[in-house]
Amino acid sequence: MSISTDHLVDALKAAGEPTRLRILALLRRGDLAVGELVQILEQSQPRLSHHLKTLATSGLVERLPEGAWVFYRARSKDWAGRVLNALFDEIDLSTEPYQSDAEALQTVRRARATSAEAYFSEIAEDWDRLRALYYPEDAIEEAILDQVAGHSFERVIDLGTGTGRMLSLLAAQTQEAEGLDLSHHMLTVARANLNRAEIRNARVRQGDVTATPFETASADLVLVHQVLHYLETPEDLMTEAARILRPGGRLLVIDFAPHDLEFLRESQGHRRLGIREDDMIEWADAAGLALKAPLRFDPPASLDQGLSVLIWNATRPANQQEVAA
C-alpha cells in the first residue's frame, strides 16, 4: 500500500518534532495510554493529547479506546510501518532522552503488574475454584500446542484473550499475535503478563469478539479459549472468526463439554452450561467452516464434580465444496 506525496510529507512533519519522536519511540515498544505517557515524559496531558492527535491524524499512530481509557499504538504495517522503521534505523535509542524514557516505561509496566495482581487477588477464590473443576490446565495447553505442532503462523488472533495466556503460549510460533477482550481489567492483566514474559510480537486491544476491528482474511490462526459459554449468541463469534480467517486458516475452540453445574451461572456468569456438539456443528456449518470431531479431556476421577474440556479444530476452506467434504 502506497500513499500520496502530500500525505507522506504530512506524516514526516508529524514525526519531525522532538516530543513526538519520543512518543513514537515509546509506542514502538508497546501500547500506552495518555496518562502513562504523562508519567513517562513528565509533560501535561493536554500537550501530549495534542501531539497524539497529530500523530493519529498523520496515520503513524492508531487510537484504541478502552472504556474510560484511550491507548495508542504505533502502526507497524504498510507505508507507516516502513516509514517508522526507516526513521528509527537512523536513531540511536541508547542515547538521551530515549534511554531515560525506556527506563521510565519500565516503571509504568511495573505499575501495570501491580494493578493486575490486585485484580486477581480479588477474584482468586472463584478463579481457583473453577480451575480445580477440570482437566489440568498445563495438559490442555500441551494438547493445544500439539494441534499446531510444526506450523509457523504469520498472524494469530485470540478472541476473548482474557489474561493473554494463549498469546504467550503461541508467541514462538507466530510473527504477530493480537488478543481482543471487552474487559479493561483483563487487558491490564494481559499487558502485564506479556511485558513480564518480554513478549514483543503480541499485543491486545479492547473490542467485541462478535464484531472485531480486524480485516477480512487477515489471520491464519484464530483461537477462542473458554469464551463461547459466556456468550448469548456464540454463533456470531463463529461467523466473525470465519470472516477474519484466511482461506486454509485454522480455528481452535477450547471450551467445556455440556455439564449440570448450575452454580457456574450464578458465580461465574456462564450463559451456557457447556457447548453441545450439535450446536457447534450447526454454527460451524453456518459460518462456512469445516469442523473436525473434538478432542475430549475428562476431569480427574477423584473429583465428585468436574468439567470435561473439548478442543475443536476447524478450517476455512478455499472453496465451499471442501466444507461439504
Structure summarized in a few sentences:
With 325 residues, the chain is an alpha/beta fold.
Question: Which helices and strands, and how do they pair?
Answer:
Layout: H1 5-15, H2 18-27, E1 32-33, H3 34-41, H4 45-58, E2 61-66, E3 69-74, H5 78-89, H6 98-131, H7 137-147, E4 153-159, H8 165-170, E5 174-181, H9 184-196, E6 202-206, E7 219-225, H10 234-244, E8 245-256, H11 263-268, H12 277-287, E9 290-291, E10 295-297, E11 309-315, H13 320-324
Parallel strand pairs: 4-5, 4-7, 5-6, 7-8
Antiparallel strand pairs: 1-3, 2-3, 8-11, 9-11, 10-11
Helix pairs in contact: 1-4, 3-4, 3-6, 6-9, 10-12
Commentary on this structure:
This protein has 325 residues and is of the alpha/beta class. It has 2 domains: 5-107, Winged helix-like DNA-binding domain superfamily/Winged helix DNA-binding domain (Arc Repressor Mutant, subunit A, Orthogonal Bundle), CATH 1.10.10.10; 132-324, Rossmann fold, CATH 3.40.50.150. It is 47% helix and 20% strand. It has helices at residues 5-15, 18-27, 34-41, 45-58, 78-89, 98-131, 137-147, 165-170, 184-196, 234-244, 263-268, 277-287, 320-324; strands spanning 32-33, 61-66, 69-74, 153-159, 174-181, 202-206, 219-225, 245-256, 290-291, 295-297, 309-315. The longest helix has 34 residues, at 98-131. The model is unreliable at 321-325 (pLDDT under 50).
